[in-house]
Amino acid sequence: MLFFSHPACLKHDPSAGLPGHPERPDRLRAIEAALVERDWLGWERREAPAASEAELELVHPRAHVERIRDLCRSGGGAIDLDTFAGEASWEAALRSAGAACEMTRCLLAGDAQVGFAAGRPPGHHAEPERAMGFCLFDNVAIAAAMAIAEHGIERVFVLDWDVHHGNGTAEIFRRRADVLFASIHQGGIFPGTGAREDIGAGAGEGFTINRPVAAGSDETVWLPLLEDELLPAAAAFGPQLVLISAGFDAHRDDPLAECRLDAGSFGRMATMVREAAQGWGVPVGAVLEGGYDLTALASSVVAAMDALGGGSGPWD
Ligand SMILES: [Zn+2]
185-204 burial, b if ≥16 CB within 10 A, otherwise e? Predict the structure, then answer.
């Protein structure tokens, strides 16, 4: 069990340009404080290296990478109403992507069966040529693309359980059959994509699965979608690696959405994924996305990590 993060990820501070921004450094502090209290659940901590620009360019055109780099170097600023990059955001973004990549490399090398990459800024809304939704680069997509490009992996299952649709990841792999992207998200909220009818395109048709759920949906809605639809589809796909876009904003206390999961729900979802992956004989890595109520975020991450490591709670 390997946990990756880096102190530079605390230096990215959107509130410097967008006051009151919910994606704040205290998110990581809350997660780490809760893990300290649990003796890190027996997980080994490792410092995330910086991702290389070549790794970023596996899914983002060079022009996008340069645009973000130049914005940070010139002192930074707001990119849109939600998304900010300051001077310190460049290294934070590289470490955040680097956490996902290094975790993936370690999993593929057999160092561990499960990993958690706790970086920020998050990634799953970043489209190839566009930072948005608090995200500069798509960390989970970079890690998946790296596994394929550099480690001979042919099939990656990306499960996105953040309450928002992972439009960036979906867009990046829309036309590819080597990544099965499956998302459960609240319909009708940001970013507005992720209709059930969107199943990918071209060679990627059938390799995108969207399951929007209604506001108010609790685990009686979420867990069966995972168990009865997404995991069987993944089993048929035959992944060699499982990556979770692990947002925790479907928690009932989260201020940005209206789903009603609790910490235990994340533990139960993580258990299902771990058991499925064990059955397939493949590793699982989780990459932090959203989650904006500090107490809910911390307890949900603890539950998910405990479950990934084989624990069974209690989580509530
Ligand atoms: Zn989210």
Answer: bbbebbbebbeeebebeeeb
